[in-house]
């Protein structure tokens, strides 16, 4: 069935995109305002977009009033943030931080989360997350009612139990126990159901066909 997104309202376009682009990783973003008040919020319009330089990007919308969300305002003010990935064990706490608290409210405290110091940026990371990326602002792109925040990853913290070889940077991804976002309100997925498909070269594929 064809859907003409040029002719649909934003709410319908949103439904189509989030129902089909699945699963999506979740960026649990921690920022600080100029006074040092913490903010934590999850964003599933998120992914990694390069390794040289290492960059991640997230889409941040505005509040219903049109004002910038704390995440965007804090990043614009300080140029720093951390991106923590969400394990299943912290899903309920993440859900609390998704609530629409008023500006200046510390979602980290509201959710009973624990912070650990970062090494290169001021915003801390969440101890409950097995992966945390320290980021500095690379670029912000206004896109309609949203903004794309591109951050350069300056340092990563990965749970020791998931590091197979620190020299070769081999990580046991399943051991991280991460979750992803699915369609609609409240739906998530685990990363425990996996399948392996070996990469094939063009030469091998042509040889197979012969």
Strand-helix topology:
Blueprint: H1 10-20, E1 27-32, E2 38-43, E3 46-51, E4 54-61, H2 70-78, E5 80-85, H3 91-97, H4 107-110, E6 115-116, E7 125-126, E8 131-143, E9 146-158, E10 163-165, E11 170-171, E12 179-181, E13 188-190, H5 202-209
Antiparallel strand pairs: 1-2, 1-5, 3-4, 4-9, 5-8, 6-7, 8-9, 10-11, 12-13
Tell me what the structure shows.
With 210 residues, the protein is an alpha+beta fold. 19% of the residues lie in helices and 35% in strands. It has five helices and 13 strands. The strands form four sheets. The chain has a seven-stranded antiparallel sheet with strand order 2-1-5-8-9-4-3. The protein has a two-stranded antiparallel ribbon with strand order 6-7. A hairpin with a 2-residue loop joins β8 (131-143) and β9. The radius of gyration is 19 Å and the shape is globular. The mean pLDDT is 94.
Rg from C-alpha positions?
A: 19 Å
Order of helices and strands: HEEEEHEHHEEEEEEEEH
Number of H- or I-type helical stretches: 5
Helix proportion range = 10-25%
Cross-sheet strand order for the largest sheet:
2-1-5-8-9-4-3
Report the uncertain regions. none
Q: What portion of residues belong to β-strands?
A: 25-35%
Q: Calculate the mean pLDDT score and round it.
A: 94
Termini separation? 37 Å
- Secondary structure class reads alpha+beta
Short description:
The chain is an alpha+beta fold and 210 residues long.
